[in-house]
Amino acid sequence: MRIVTARELQDWLEHGTVLEKDSRGPKVVMLQNGLILKIFHTRRHPWLARITPPAKRFAQNAATLKKLGIAAPAIIETLWLDQCKGLSACTYQPLPGKSLETLLREQPTEIDNLIPELAAFIFRLHRQGIYFRSLHLGNVLLLPEGGFGLIDFLDLIKKRRRLNDWEAKRNLGHLRRYLQRRKISGFPIDKLIDSYSATARSC
Ligand SMILES: Nc1ncnc2c1ncn2[C@@H]1O[C@H](COP(=O)(O)OP(=O)(O)O)[C@@H](O)[C@H]1O
Ligand SMILES: [Mg+2]
User: Fold this and answer.
1) Is the CB of 38 under 6 A from ligand 1?
2) pLDDT, tens digit, for every residue of 144-203?
3) Beta strands 74-82 and 2-3: pairing type?
4) Distance 156 CA to ligand 2 centre (A)
5) Distance from the CA of 156 to the center of ligand 1, in angstroms?
6) How many domains does the chain have?
7) One domain for residues 15 and 106
8) For position 188, what pLDDT does the model report?
9) Collapsing DSSP states into helix, strand and coil, what is residue 69?
10) Which parts of the chain are beta strand (E)?
11) Which of 21, 23, 28, 137 to mutate to test the pocket of ligand 1 (most atoms within 8 A of CB)?
């Protein structure tokens, strides 16, 4: 992992566009060169973050997805922003596409048409042993050429076997709870779950 100097980071933040931030500061920044900088603030003890830096896990997860043929951003670098504090980051090439959250806002009927394809995509993730805890509308992109891709997959788990029914149900439950929490009523979650079950039955 490359150590980023304070000056370089300052330069990135000064000339980039902050896409997401929280109380701890910027989280996702579009850099002037078109790459995305994703900063991993951690609630874990700094020494734990130093042993298994989130940026490394994120890059490994990107490699796992790539190996399985699932579209994900291409990682350019893994970085230390502050090694003492365990603050790490990645730069990556943005994945072209539109998040399902944006799509739902802009073209809700389009989402409805996509449900069978989305259910098949999630089923495929589960069959390949991928448990994506952050499965929600902001983290799944509809690709320009069709099909879906994932972003924000730090907490992805790759199992050696396909997910069992209980795990699959729990994963879809994350999506349902996310919709409830965010008070998103326009997403056809029941249709998605029915469609998922139909796909599972036909395989
Ligand atoms: N690889 C990417 N391609 C395109 N847009 C991205 C990418 N990564 C992040 N973004 C944009 O930044 C937003 C937040 O990124 P994300 O990684 O989901 O961070 P957060 O932890 O804040 O949810 C996304 O909703 C999307 O608009
Ligand atoms: Mg996200």
Assistant:
1) yes
2) 999 999 999 999 999 999 999 999 999 999 999 999 999 998 999 999 999 999 999 997
3) parallel
4) 13
5) 15
6) 2
7) no
8) 96
9) coil
10) 2-3, 17-22, 25-30, 36-40, 74-82, 87-93, 98-99, 130-132, 140-142, 148-150, 156-158
11) 28
Residues 85, 114: one domain? no
**113 contact partners, CB below 8 Å, separation of at least 6:** none
Last residue of a domain, one of 93, 127, 154: 93
Mutation to probe ligand 1, out of 66, 148, 152 (largest number of atoms < 8 A from CB): 152
- Same domain for 147 and 130, yes or no, is yes
Question: Residues 76-96: what's their mean pLDDT?
Answer: 96
For residues 109 and 48, membership in a common domain is answered with no
Q: Where are the alpha helices (DSSP H) in 32-107?
A: 46-51, 54-67, 100-106
Distance of CA 198 from the midpoint of ligand 1 (Å)? 31
**pLDDT band (50, 70, 90) for residue 114:** very high
Whole-angstrom distance, CA of residue 27 vs CA of residue 109: 31
* pLDDT tens, residue by residue, 11-63: 999 999 999 999 999 999 999 999 999 999 988 888 888 889 999 999 999 99
Q: Same domain, yes or no, for 116 and 31?
A: no
* Domain C-terminal end among 75, 93, 111: 93
Which residue from 133, 151, 154 has its CB within 8 A of the most atoms of ligand 1, so it is best to mutate? 151
Q: Are residue 105 and residue 87 in the same domain, yes or no?
A: no
Mean pLDDT of the chain: 96
Same domain, 138 and 191: yes
Range of the domain at 136: 98-202
Two structure tokens written together for 91: 């730069």
Q: In angstroms, what is the span from residue 132 Cα to ligand 1's centroid?
A: 15
